[in-house]
Amino acid sequence: MNLADINKRYNIFSEFVPHDGKGFTFSLSDDMIAKGFQATAGSMILEGHRPVYDSTVSVRMRDAGASLIGKTNMHEFGVGVLSVAAKNPFDIERICGSGAACAASLIDDHVALATSGWGGISIPAAFCGVIGLTPTQGRVSRYGQIDNVSSMGPIGIIAPNTKILKKYLPAISGKDVNDPVSCSQPELKLGKSKLKTVAVPKGITDNVSKDVRKAFDDSVEMLKGMSVDITYEDMPHLKYSMAAHYILACVEGSLNFATYCGMRVGQQNGDMSLPFDDYFTSFRTKYFGQEIKKSIISGTYMTLGDNRNELYLRSLGIRQLVLDDHKKILSKYDTILTPSMPFIAPKSGEIEKMGYADKYLSGRFAIPPVFCGLPSISVPCGYSGGMPMGMQFISSHWNEDVLISAAEMWENSFNIKRPEVLL
Amino acid sequence: MKIGLEIHVQLPTRSKMFCSCPAGGAAGPNEHICPGCMGMPGTRPALNKEAIILGIKIAKLLNCTVPETIWFNRKIYFYPDLCRHYQITQYETPIAGNGVYYLGKKPIRINRAHLEEDPGVVSRSGDGSLTDYNRSGMPLIEIVTEPDIATPAEAREFLTALLKDIRHVIDLPDDGERSIRADCNISMKDSERCEVKNVSGLKNVERALTFEAVRQTKILKAGGRIARETRHYDADRMVTTSARKKEHEGDYAYVCESNLGKIDVKKIMSSVEHKESPKDLAARLEKEFVIDGSVAMQIVNTSVKLANLFEHLAKDVGPETSLKWVTGAISSFWKMLEKDADAKIGGIKDIIMRQKNGEINDVECSIMLKALITGKDDPAAKNDAALEPLIKIAIANNPSVLTDYKKSEKAANRIIGIIMKETGGSYSSSDIVEATKKILDELSLQ
């Protein structure tokens, strides 16, 4: 295996080290800090940023015996849903969602860590036919993860099979004094639960592509055959979660991106004779991408004056309602099941034709659990024209165990395909 | 004229509010910084619990309500002295709300007091600016009053009294570095208010407010309008100058700081010991021991320790006797006693007790108190060798004492009296008694 060749073909890594690929390897998406590596979070404004400290996940993975081979490409700060950062391992004409999923799909015994603020684990996992676990918010320390959204988007694992996923989830989980949010978690226990009951939100396959609907319905039948009880349930507030997520993500992003001004980190080669306001404006204009500028402007607008009450605070309220919907159902069933994406990985040209809102709304299955801080796992559930499709189990807070056992059970009966072109 | 103040007080914690950098005492610029307070991408704030505890103590001092849970907010702050470009502060859940502080009999309502982080310090240098982030992230409490203050002089009086109380309640050292800054809001009748930002020092607050009062009155008299704005105070020229148009609350975003989550104040509060403020102490002494209010205030103003001494004595010797000595001999030597009042309290009590029991008279009591306080009977200063010859001479001059002493030990008192008079309080009575008895015992055996 030659990483350089793989990278040339699929554009997986922003930076990598030569490695023979033997033993357990891992990669970090570019918004996670690792000593010795550049950390740009996919943004020009952070080019050349080599952090002075190490992230908790990087330290913990290395301590667990895995070697870091590179930083995977991502779309700028992970903002947005359909990323063109890397090419799909099943068809290089198509997108794959993030370099992390591409790496997990192509490299043997490899785990890729990624962040999920905008659904960045389930979405690429579905597009690349691999398993993507988004843990509970607070399960994995985010110390050393370059912030995009603060109140959601834990670090999760993308892996080709549940065996290595199970090996490394305990390694990166656990309390960390550097991230107070991680300190409230109960202990992670694996191998205790078994999937028995599943709720499917009513009408969840409306407006998804034909092939995804068929694969999803077939999978539900298959689950029934594995003596899992399937029930259809109403989730009245689910439809509001996307609008509210967009508001919170933009608002929190706009503050997190405020620190980038051509000082202290990243690009700093501006005209020092300018007044401070002009100096940072020139930087931000030049080096932020369109998607980031849009989210900063939207986020600022959404907290301005009365908008704070009308948009920001109301979105926080909606988050509670959506969470209550989930909690109510999860008190009766082990998991909630939805598709992961409404279509197979699109071609780059197809994305250009899509509207801004349509692109964003394609994350409508992957984003709600992230929005509520609930854990979820995306597993491959079918293939259409050789392209993988995924479905997603959601469980209650801190119960990653039932998700992994569900994925394991599924893995034993469903034939997960690897991409044909392995270098 | 209406004056409202926003008072910033740095809290005396050992480390900064959201990271483990030391708070204060840096040898040079940018020595106490870390990836956290430099806002390096990917760092997370971790709360210093001590800041919450000090906040609760101040809330109690200001008779404020304290919420059961609090959280922090991010306030947009696009200036280079805070690296993240937002300030972690409190918006919906200030640590203290709806209080009142009595300046004498006048109530000054407290709107709120909230915790926040201090920015760094920017200094102009040549044609550029230098930023020192040592102060960035130090814990601050911002106390916001209602516009209940009537004059610049009253503002100064209020600040003086308030700071004295705060210093006491949170053990804030008066070391200059942890300075006190105030934003002064002032408006004339029915016109917009101006805010003079970041005035440090009590004198400057009064001067800045006086300057503003005159400036605004002049404008209004000339038929002009006061524009709502932020102004700076130039301490050298003693004038205020326009800084920028005042932002409105709505421009600050105040987004929840989800990296810190909710903080259970109720739980923390149960472990906080509340220290009585000097003002409350005076009021309590007045009531509890039925003494004159102004006298109580006078004692407390001299020192809280003196008031504690009064209270301690009053419990054993009664308030009247206690008051007599505390305002008398003890007050006059207070400067000397203050350092080790706690250590000497037992000795003082013994002496006053003996006076009360009639063992010694007022003059002797004064002399003995003076001796104790001025430290003339400190072990180091003591010279028993000199005491012994004096006693022997006194016995030689009064030979009958020795014969009487054999019958009754009380006879020793005559010698003791003579020695005490001669030494004028250089020795403690107990030492004299001990030495005299020892010599008399030795002589009796011969």
Radius of gyration of chain B, in angstroms, nearest whole number: 30 Å
Main sheet: strand order of chain A: 1-3-2-6-8-7-12-13-11-9-10
Q: Biggest interface between protein chains, with counts per chain? A: A-B, 47 and 33 residues
Question: What is the helix/strand order of chain A?
Answer: HEEHEEEHEHEEHEHEHHHHEHHHEEH
What percentage of the residues of chain A does DSSP assign to strands (E)? 15-25%
Question: Beta-sheet strand percentage of chain B?
Answer: 15-25%
Q: What structural class do you assign from the helix and strand content of chain A? A: alpha/beta
- Profile the largest sheet of chain B: 8 strands, mixed
Identify the overall geometry of chain B.
Answer: elongated
Q: Which stretches of chain A of 5+ consecutive residues score pLDDT under 50?
A: none
Total number of domains of chain B = 3
Question: What features would you highlight for this structure?
Answer:
heterodimer, A: 423 residues, alpha/beta, Amidase signature (AS) enzymes, 11-stranded mixed beta sheet, two-stranded antiparallel ribbon, 13 strands, B: 446 residues, alpha+beta, Arc Repressor Mutant, subunit A, 3 domains, 8-stranded mixed beta sheet, 3-stranded antiparallel beta sheet, 15 helices, 15 strands
In short:
Chain A has 423 residues and is α/β, with parallel strands linked by helices. Chain A has helices at residues 3-10, 56-63, 99-106, 122-128, 162-172, 210-225, 241-256, 276-287, 290-303, 307-330, 348-353, 356-361, 367-371, 400-413; strands spanning 13-16, 25-29, 67-72, 87-88, 91-95, 110-115, 131-134, 155-159, 197-201, 229-233, 335-339, 376-384, 387-394.
Give the arrangement of secondary structure elements.
The complex is a heterodimer of chains A (423) and B (446).
Chain A: H1 3-10, E1 13-16, E2 25-29, H2 56-63, E3 67-72, E4 87-88, E5 91-95, H3 99-106, E6 110-115, H4 122-128, E7 131-134, E8 155-159, H5 162-172, E9 197-201, H6 210-225, E10 229-233, H7 241-256, H8 276-287, H9 290-303, H10 307-330, E11 335-339, H11 348-353, H12 356-361, H13 367-371, E12 376-384, E13 387-394, H14 400-413
Parallel strand pairs in A: 2-3, 2-6, 9-10, 9-11
Antiparallel strand pairs in A: 1-3, 4-5, 6-8, 7-8, 7-12, 11-13, 12-13
Chain B: E1 2-10, H1 49-61, E2 69-70, E3 73-76, E4 86-89, E5 96-103, E6 106-117, E7 121-125, E8 128-132, E9 139-145, H2 152-170, E10 180-187, E11 194-200, H3 202-221, E12 229-234, E13 239-245, E14 255-256, E15 263-264, H4 265-269, H5 278-288, H6 293-302, H7 304-317, H8 319-332, H9 334-337, H10 341-356, H11 362-374, H12 384-397, H13 400-407, H14 412-423, H15 429-445
Parallel strand pairs in B: 11-12
Antiparallel strand pairs in B: 1-9, 1-10, 2-15, 3-4, 3-14, 5-6, 6-9, 7-8, 10-11, 12-13
Helix pairs in contact in B: 1-2, 2-3, 5-6, 6-7, 7-8, 7-10, 10-11, 12-14, 12-15, 14-15
